[in-house]
User: Fold this.
Amino acid sequence: MSYSMQVKILSKNLIKQSLPTPQHLENYRLSFFDQVADVAHLPLVLFYPHCRNNSKNEELKESLSRILTHLYPLAGRFAEDESSILCLDQGVTYIKATVNCKLDDFLQQANKDLGLALPFWPQGIMEVDKTNLFFTPLLVVQVTTFECGGLALAISHAHPAMDGCTTFKIIYEWAKVCKFGTPSKEINFMNFNLGTLFPYKDLTTILEPLVDEGKRKNSKLIARKFVFEEDAISRLREKFDSVGEDLGFKPSPLIHSTGSNNSHLKRSILSFPINLRGKVATFPEIANAFGNLIIEIPIKFEHDDETKMESLHHIVKLIKESVQVIISKCVIATPDEIVSLVIDLYKDSYAGLEWGGDNEVVNFTCSSLCRFPVQKTDFGWGEPSLMHFGSRHSQVFWLYDIECENRIAVQMGLEEKYMDKLACDQDIMDFAKFSAYGYFDDMVSIRFLRRPLQSPPYGELRENCV
Assistant:
C-alpha cells in the first residue's frame, strides 16, 4: 500500500476573510515569545470517517473564511523585518486533493507505519525551512478525500506566528463554526495583546552569540508510536502511589536509550514546554492569547546521577520539582521577569558551554497534548479516528489521549540508534505496546536557527505540568 497510495492535488487557492481587516489592525506586532519560536511550519493531520454529513466538507472554506475575520493575523504575511505581521487580507492556502484508497485500509496500514501519514501533509510543507518560511502563508490547509468518502484534514502553521495551544484552539473553534454556522460577527474567542505585554527585543544586546553551531548536525529521524493501555496506566499509578509520587511521564527508557554499549549514560536534557496561559496571576488576560506563550523547562540528567537513574522515582521527582520551581516563579512574575527567566534558562542549559557547547549532550522534548480539545474537533463528521503530529526538526515525544481519555498514545521522532534501544527496553515493554513505525524520509536539521536566542527544540506545548 505504501507504494501504490497516491495523493492527487485537485486545486489550490487562497481563502480570505469574509470581512476586511480594519485599518487600525493592519500591523500586528509579534511578541518576544514569537521571536524565539522555532523557524518551522508544523503540520497536524486529522482523519475522519465517512458519514452522512460528509457533504459538509463543502462548507469548510466558507467557515474558514468566517473564522479568519476574527483571526486576522493568520491571513497576513510576515513583515520584512520579521517583527510584525502585515494584515492586508492576503489569505491562507487551501488545497483540495484525493487519494486512491479507502480510509479503513489506510488506517489499518498506518497503525503499523506512521510514515504513511506524511503524504497527507499540506503540499509543499516539507520544503519549508528557514530560507523561505517568512515568505510562506502563515496557515496552510489541505483536505484530502478517500475513495470511501472519508477525509484527511491537514493544517500546518508557521511557528513564529503561534504555538500549538493557539492552533488546537483554532481548529476546535473552526469545527464549531462549520458545524453550527456561526456568523462572522459572533466569533470571538482570542485576544491579541502578547506583543504589548512581551514586546520584541534586540536580542544582540542581552545575549551572547550561540556556541558552536557545528553541533546542529543533520540526522535522520524515525517516527514510532506506542500505547499505554488503561490497565498499564493503573499499574503505573499504583507503582508511584506506593511511594507518594504523582505519575506524569515515564522517562526512564528514554534516558537509558542514550547509553552506549557499556551502559554509560550520556548527559541529557529533557525539555518540557509549559503553556503559561492560565498560570500567571498578575495578568490573567493572557488565558486566551493568540500567538506563542510557552516556556521551556530543561530537565538535566548528569553523569553523577547515573546510579540514581536506576530509580524511576528519582527521575519523576526530578522532573516534578524542576517544573514546580519554574511555574511558582511565573505565577506572580511581571512580563519582564518572565522574559528574564526564559533568557536565564536558555543561557544556562542551551547556550552555555557546559551544556549547549557539549556535543555529547543529547536533547529530547516531551510535550503533552492530553485534554486538549483537538481530539474532539467535530466539523459535523464526528470525532477524528487518527491524529498525526509533524516535526522533522528535533527528537520529540507527544503524549495524547485516545478512546475516552482512558488510554495514552505516545508518538515520537528519534534518531535510529536511540529508537532501537528504546524498543528493546524492558521497562517500556512491560507497560506499553508498539503500534506504528516509520521513517521521516528527509534528512533534517535538529533545529533551525533564527536568532541569537532560540528556544530549545520542541514540538508542541504542554498544557499540564507533571
Residues 316 and 433 are 21 Å apart (CA to CA). The first strand starts at residue 7 and ends at 15. The chain is about 25% helix and 25% strand. Confidence is low (pLDDT under 50) at residues 212-216, 247-253, 259-263, 441-466.
